[in-house]
Amino acid sequence: MMYKDKKIVWIFLAPTLILVVGFLYYPFVLSIYNSFFNVKDLGGISKTYIGLGNYREMFRDRAIWTSLKNTLILTVAAVVFQAGLGLVLALLVDSVRRGQQFYRTVFFFPIVISATAIGLMFNLMYSYDYGMFNQLLMKMGKDKVLWLDEAKAMLMVSVPVIWQYVGFYFVIILTGITGIPKEIYESAAIDGVTGFKQVFYITIPLLSGVIKSCMILAITGALKVFDLPWVIANKGAPSGKTYLLGTYQYNVVFNAARPGYGSAIAVLIVLLGVIISVAVNTLLTTEDDDGY
Amino acid sequence: MDDVVLKKNRRKFQPSQLVLHVILLLWASTTIYPLVWVFNNSFKDKDIILVDSFSLINSSTSTLANYVTAFTKMNIGRSYANSLIISGSVVVLVMFFGGLAAYIIARYDFFGKKVIHASLIAALLFPAFATIVPVFMILMRLDLVNKHIGVIIPQTAGNLAFAIIILVGFMSSIPIELEESAVVEGCSPWQIFSRIVVPVSKPSFSTVAIFTFLWSYNDLFLQMVILRKRETFPISALLNEISSQYGGTDFGLMAAAVTLVIIPVLIVYLLMQQNIIKGLTAGAVKG
Predict the structure, then answer these.
(1) In this structure, what DSSP letter does residue B73 have?
(2) Looking at CA atoms only, how far is residue A17 from chain B in angstroms?
(3) Pick from A223-237, B73-87, B240-254: least confident
């Protein structure tokens, strides 16, 4: 049933519409517009139209390629390890008879902690002089390691980013598993499908929709990562090796004070998100799927 | 026949339960131990941490000095207050505006409804990077930079999409009969909303409140961009500042700061975890 009196509709919707249009849609459109300008100040007062100049600059900008490469690697790693580990842990927790609630609580809780705090925590572990890892190494009589050197820094930044959100996908997938009717397993057992076979022939196929949602969430999440890399490896330290598109964009806009170019990078981030999500969605859609 | 299968299955299960728990506890230790380590070290003098960060504190080595520094030198109390003002306002505004909009979308039929509903959900897809420059320009023109309200407004806008997804989902599942009788008795839409719909939708409002609070409290990006004066810093921004100033030197202070940031969130989480996990999966699975 629907109400007849329609006067109230726009009054109740107004605050939400004003905020969402004013602070999400309008700025987004403006970002696209600004990406065709050379903007010299954050107030956006002096700007000159340069057409595709910002986009052409991206091809010459080595830092963009580094951050694009890092972001794509992180995205793949996020899908494989976040959704993957989440699935494995969910399957394991589903088969234990005790302590399910404990595992849920403990696995999920890094998500509620701010990435800033987690970044600081990992800084304390990675620190060269007296960090947790090097203290462990010294206890074992080994030499200290520079954890955030050029070769390892990106890996070291990715580990906490991925670790933090494994529990998120774990909970979503576990909820999906709990929703599968018990009768399916019982009748499968009668047909001789048991143990591991049940996982591959029943659980995973029935979860395909949920797993796909998780993959898309992992992808869009990885493209948005900012806080953790910013705290652990400020400004792409060492020497820009750990820039992600998000952290590089911030640096371009607020440290290099080039909002126009930064807007072009923002457009690139959104485009990437849309393209990858659509691609994953199309690749993983089977005929009997009702879609994501 | 099936009895045999089930029995075999059960017998194979027994030793593997132990293996499963060992694997699961290994992962659990990665989420628990670092925090215990930080918490433990926050009560140690920084010179002791440098020598041995693993030993548990005892009465002779423990000290509150790091916390004293955090509150006096870093003025972490003021940052708590800033966080509370900002995140509290965001939570209230998101629940109020989101609730009104969700009620309309769940119950009314009007021109453009589908488009509006879809574009409200699609707003979830915009990363903060894609809007930050124009948002900053707008706030500068309105003279809201370095003011709490300058963070409150964009954070409210950014959290409305999630709120509406959750609330519309819940409100559409409420049986309409309650409201119908209220209409017959001549209640206004506002009365129906505030006296019937909101009380019945309480569980979904609490999910929205918890998540909005966590996201707002933890969101460093917007805090960093809009607030550039120390006295306006909420907790995350202050933490970021401490990290860049004392990162390499004062481990004790860092550990205390991390602990102080985590504790309120940890309390909220442990009290409300059922709501948090349920609400989250409802939103995410529906997509």
Answers:
(1) T
(2) 8
(3) B240-254
Q: Is B227 helix (H, G, I), strand (E, B) or coil?
A: coil
Stretch (H or E) spanning A39: strand A37-39
Q: Do B140 and A176 touch (CB under 8 A)?
A: no
The pTM of the full predicted model, rounded to 2 decimals, is 0.84
Q: Is A37 helix (H, G, I), strand (E, B) or coil?
A: strand
- The strand pairing partners of B156, in sequence order, are none
Nearest CA in chain A to B154: A23
Are the beta carbons of A28 and B131 separated by less than 8 Å? yes
- Decide yes or no: CATH 1.10.3720.10 for domain A63-284: yes
Model confidence pLDDT, tens digit, residues A26-75: 999 999 999 999 988 877 778 889 989 999 999 899 999 999 999 999 99
Measured between CA atoms, the residue of chain A closest to residue B264 is A113
What is the identity of the amino acid at A137? Answer: L
Q: Check CB contact under 8 Å for A226 and B126.
A: no
Contact between A123 and A191 under an 8 Å Cβ cutoff? The reply is no
| Segment A233-260, tens digit of pLDDT | 888 778 888 999 999 999 999 888 899 9
Please list, residue by residue across A28-47, b when 16 or more beta carbons sit within 10 angstroms of its beta carbon and e when fewer do: bebbbebbbbbbeebebeeb
pLDDT in the model for residue A182: 85
CATH architecture of B67-286: Orthogonal Bundle (1.10)
Chain A (83-142) residues lying within 8 Å, Cβ to Cβ, of chain B? 85, 89, 92-93, 95-97, 99, 102-110, 112-117, 119-125, 127, 129-130, 132, 135-136, 139
Instruction: Delimit the domains of chain B by residue range.
Output: 67-286
Q: What pLDDT, on the 0 to 100 scale, is given for residue A4?
A: 63
Q: For residue B242, which residues of chain A lie inside 8 Å, CB to CB? A: 120
